[in-house]
Amino acid sequence: MKPPYARSAVPGVGRLGLIEPTAPEELDSLGWSNLDGVELLWALSRAANADLALRTLVRLQEGLGAGWTELDSALRSDQRLRGRLFGLIGASSAFGDHLVADPSSWKLLAGDMTLPSKGELTRRLLACVGAVPEAGPNASPMLHRAVLTGPEAIAALRKCYRDQLMVLAAADLAPTVENEPVVPYQTVGHQLSDMADAALTAALAVAVTVVCPDEPCPVRIAVIAMGKCGARELNYVSDVDVVFVAEPSNAVASRIAGEMMRIGSSAFFEVDAALRPEGKRGELVRTLESHVAYYKRWAKTWEFQALLKARPMTGDVELGRQYTDALGPMVWAAAEREDFVPEVQAMRRRVEASVPPELRERELKLGRGSLRDVEFAVQLLQLVHGRADTSLRVMSTIDALTALAAGGYVGREDAANLTASYEFLRLLEHRLQLQKLKRTHTLPSPEDEEALRWLARAAHMRPDGRHDALGVLNAEIKRNSHRVRRLHAKLFYRPLLESVARIDKEALRLSPDAAVRQLAALGYSAPQNALGHLTALTSGASRKGRIQALLLPTLLEWLGDTPDPDAGLLAYRRLSDALVNATWFLRLLRDEASVAQRLMTVLGSSAYIPDLLIKAPDVIRLLADGPSGPRLLEPHPEDVARGILSSSARYVEPIRAVGAARSLRRYELARVASADILGMLDVPQVCRALSSVWAAVLNAALAAVIRASETDLGGPAPATFAVIGMGRLGGNELGYGSDADVLFVCEPRPGVDETQAVKWANLIGDRVRTLLGAPSTDPPLVVDTGLRPEGRSGPLVRTLASYEAYYAQWAQSWEVQALLRAHTVAGDEELGLRFLKMIDKTRYPKGGVSDQAVQEIRRIKARVDSERLPRGADPATHTKLGRGGLADIEWTVQLIQLRHAHEVPSLHNTSTLETLDAIGAAELLSETDIELLRDAWLTATKARNALVLVRGKPTDQLPGPGKVLSAVAQVAGSPDGDPNEFLDNYLRITRRAKAVVQRVFGGV
């Protein structure tokens, strides 16, 4: 609440924005508390921070002494001075301190103040150190020599530079207080860049004098401005990026460059040469030939992107022009590089990830809807089209947007809106930096209303009838940030669609060649095909075509971030064609942005899912969020299994019953795989869901075949029948590419001949296997009975008594080991339970397995490793049989079970992960060993599942570096989707696990 100013003679002074208790006394000390000072007070009230301005005026009065009368008189008579001075000291405590340090410098702001030209700025800064052009027969006409050096030169340069900066800031801030003309954003950027050029020209003069005090400079040296300075769009407080080129490049040139950087960083701003070849590790100065050789052979895409803004700044300008002429053609060929798209995408991800989540909405430079979004998009379009269109070879962001709009690469309205938002965000950035002359890009916290209110006033925000200045600021920040993010998506794709669809008859359209170039740069490896898909999706004058044209800019951007945008776009077209009569489909994508984004992620990541979605499109509805979270996670495996059984039970014919089960399986596979790709399910959850579906389908098929058989027999079946899951099915750990390993067991009903019962059971088992294995476009349903007694040469189905007799007399080591994962999955539960109890004495033998059996298991494992690994496979990256892969972990766990399960009941478990927990609880292995084995199993399983999702078919071998590995890395959840990091992590984890396997399983 503002205090009453009882001592003031000015009515309404409590409404002047002065909230400090000392304000009345300060006004009295200035002599502004009478009616003669009303005009001054109202001007003061319009400063961004009236109290700060008032305090600074009091300090100025003390510093000026008798000279205050002159300033007071000038303020009363010169409206422009009032606007400049009050605007400056109300927005910037740093410039207030500068004025107090030299009170007479207020005169720089009086009268018909004009912004000096670059030549005048250079003259003033050179003059403050007494610099004159080099003289003598060997002198360089491009260089100057200074009289002042050392601390005196730095102090003089700092004072002169800060004075010129103050003049610009005062002109920029004056509209806050008085109705002065607003200084355009581009004028501010140009002026700041010209000041930087002049400042470093003076710093170079001092450096030449220091390094070569008694003779002409023996080298030609050019300073190249990069980044915002190169583009002449510099901030008030910013690093100035430079690159040095010299002839010859020797110790003298390096010393001059280093001295210039030291002086510039001390007097003006941080001078940064990190954009030079090889970055901070590279030589500070190179010859032109050395620069050209580096960029031809070693430079990365981002380095060519940086060269977009390279501009000769000072020093030997002719040498600087030779530098830009030599490297310019390489810049415009960068988009043709093979690694262009992945490098640009990786750089974009790194930029976004560098901002802490809590600051992303407040970060003007790097956050969402920020300056970098605009600059990144504009520069990418320049690189894509600049080789063919020289009009795009401009440096500043605003000029580039204008050129892109003129060429039809960006819509005119979009370019205008993006320009306005860019300038608004730059205005806020400038005001934040002016406050204390500190480099910052972060908005004040929403809780700090006072800081935000100051920013609103400093940025010329005024109440609009509905909101005060703070409300207007918040609304504008939100509006512009959203607009940048939305236009960032449209920037690439809207012109593409205007080229293939008649959205706007007046709009400029990209040529076919330009459209293909743009699609190629966005990550489409077959841009001609992609253009055909866009044409097909938006063709015709139908409502669906118009909706597609509105949706596709955003959909294409999301697809561009996926591992395979070409396949994703084709899948989206196929899905759209299949759902052409489903009115809900496009409406859902239009109204639910999260559904559209998730669908594009799934389609562009997986060859496994699109066909499933075409046949089970209702899964797309599950991509939405429900009241309690993602709807993809709502069905529970038990509910899904019951649904499959009840749905198939409605049909009498086994083929139709299995068809119903297949349909629900298809739906469930699409749901689970989509949730997996979107990172909503962990590995154990995926395995449990897939195992539950497999068991339910087996149950449904078995029940349907038995029902049909009983109908044919005219009575009950002659035997009970159970399906025992083995391998990963028994362990509840199936992957997408896993077969179902099973045993079939039967038990004759009382009074039924065993031979007849077994014959019937074999027919049932064979019928189930045939029905499920029938050709289909769905992921296969292979029922594998190879683990039965006597292998594939033995009978398909045995009675319980036959199994018991066989295992008691003939069971081999590998068969005993296989029984460790036996678990009932379908059929008669009572018979299945009796089977499990019967085999317990075989798989959990009293006293554990013998040493001979252990040696046999090790021998078999060695044989498996040598004979079953496919020819040409890399054992380091084979997820199943490779080093530290699934087989290594599972055989190690099973050997521990065979040795200790008779005395540790918790080891009676078919799950690898749960058994590992039991092994750790029983202290049979150290906690470290348990973690290494668990991590390896989870990592290998995740990679194996990702391989199936990406390639659409079962495979166990991780690919070498390339597109597929990048896709697997992204689907497997590698940070930033970096394939190298993913592969390194996989090799590290499995290598450590292998050491445990060798010690525990191999006895090494």
UniProtKB/TrEMBL annotation:
Q: Which InterPro entries match?
A: GlnE (IPR023057), GlnE_rpt_dom (IPR005190), NT_sf (IPR043519), PII_UdlTrfase/GS_AdlTrfase (IPR013546)
**According to its UniProt record, which cofactors does this protein need?**
Mg(2+)
Keyword check for Metal-binding, yes or no. no
Q: Name one GO cellular component term.
A: cytosol
Which part of the chain is the PII-uridylyltransferase/Glutamine-synthetase adenylyltransferase domain?
Answer: 346-492, 876-1000
Known catalytic reactions: [glutamine synthetase]-O(4)-(5'-adenylyl)-L-tyrosine + phosphate = [glutamine synthetase]-L-tyrosine + ADP; [glutamine synthetase]-L-tyrosine + ATP = [glutamine synthetase]-O(4)-(5'-adenylyl)-L-tyrosine + diphosphate
Annotated SUPFAM superfamilies = Nucleotidyltransferase (SSF81301), Nucleotidyltransferase substrate binding subunit/domain (SSF81593)
State the residue spans of region: Adenylyl transferase.
504-1004
Q: Keywords in UniProt for this one?
A: ATP-binding, Magnesium, Multifunctional enzyme, Nucleotide-binding, Nucleotidyltransferase, Transferase
Catalytic activity, EC: 2.7.7.89, 2.7.7.42
- Could you mention a single GO BP entry for this protein? regulation of glutamine family amino acid metabolic process
Record's function text: Involved in the regulation of glutamine synthetase GlnA, a key enzyme in the process to assimilate ammonia. When cellular nitrogen levels are high, the C-terminal adenylyl transferase (AT) inactivates GlnA by covalent transfer of an adenylyl group from ATP to specific tyrosine residue of GlnA, thus reducing its activity. Conversely, when nitrogen levels are low, the N-terminal adenylyl removase (AR) activates GlnA by removing the adenylyl group by phosphorolysis, increasing its activity.
The UniProt entry's sequence similarity note says: Belongs to the GlnE family.
Under what name is this protein listed? Bifunctional glutamine synthetase adenylyltransferase/adenylyl-removing enzyme
Q: Which organism is it from?
A: Rhodococcus xishaensis
